[in-house]
Amino acid sequence: MKQIVPGLLLLVLLLGCKSEDSSSTAGNGASSEVKKPRIALIMKSLANEFFSNMADGAKSYQAENPDQFDLVVNGIKDERDISRQVSLVEEMIASNVDAIVIAPADSKALVPVLRRAKKAGVIVINIDNRLDAEVLAAENVVIPFVGPDNKAGAKKVGDYLANKLASGDAVCILEGVRTSFNGQQRLTGFQEAMDEAQIKVVDHQSAEWEMSKANTIASSMLSEHPEVKAILAANDSMALGAVAAVKGAGRSDDVMIVGFDNISAVQQAIKEDKIIATADQHGDQLAVYGIQNALILIENPDAAVEDVETPVDLITKESLSP
């Protein structure tokens, strides 16, 4: 796997220097204690295993580094509850956190409140779902993105599926929230893979990341397009909804399904041949990468603000085999 998480060595050096400074102060008998920075992690729906894994990874990292920072973890109940996520950012600004690491529910709607956070002196790191470049420019704000190339990850999954199909076969796509950059990129990656293999995308609709909605939409797709040979889902929750739809239509043996996220339920479904592939963007480490880069900027606010590409890997039955 290529090295695509720069700056971590710098972080170790910076934190090491900080530890040495603290030890030196204690040795001189100083009574004041260096205040630890507070970092807020704000995610999408914690009902989605991907984000609960992300929260667990962040908490574990803080537990391993208790002297370096304090962590506040927040999430919303519903992937589409954008107003609640805006409120969470406002609450974190009011509570004077040093940094916010956020997986935005919407790539455009969160930009204004994050601009206010930066104006209040809060370091902001964008993870998972990239904020919209045009809106960032319009708001005159620069926020670094730490996360995977969703288009490349989706194309890996699409290419794997295409190798199991024939030219001219028909497929459908279940999209995520259409105003989310990661949803847009996964759709594009899927479409490029299908175009290159001359496979027809006969329908694509948004199920807004939700399993139950994906079940309903996939059932309708299968009814309207009985020729469909596969369903590409832009996240694993929707892939599981498609599994239920395919089973309900009595087509579990002739409709293939792929997803994106590598949650445990989908790993089991892959082992049982209900889903053939997904993409792992290492959600348990994604927030950690964001926190590490936030700590760099807290330590040195004048450090260059750069995007960081994190890993995304194809997961199949073969890769899950011991």
Helix count, DSSP H or I runs of 4 or more residues: 12
CATH superfamily of the largest domain: Response regulator
Give the terminus-to-terminus CA distance: 19 Å
Q: In which range does the helix fraction lie?
A: 40-55%
Quick recap:
With 322 residues, the chain is α/β, with parallel strands linked by helices.
General description of the model:
The chain has 322 residues and is an alpha/beta fold. It has 2 domains: 168 residues, Rossmann fold (3-Layer(aba) Sandwich); 131 residues, Rossmann fold (3-Layer(aba) Sandwich). Helices cover 46% and strands 18% of the residues. It contains 12 helices and 12 strands. The protein has a 6-stranded parallel beta sheet, sandwiched between helices. It has a 4-stranded parallel beta sheet with strand order 7-6-8-9, sandwiched between helices. Strands 10-12 form a two-stranded antiparallel sheet. The radius of gyration is 21 Å and the shape is elongated. The two termini are 19 Å apart. The N terminus is likely disordered. InterPro entries: Bact_Solute-Bind_Prot2, Peripla_BP_I, SBP_2_dom. One of its GO terms (cellular component) is outer membrane-bounded periplasmic space. One of its GO terms (molecular function) is carbohydrate binding. Pfam families: Peripla_BP_4. It is found in: Cell envelope.
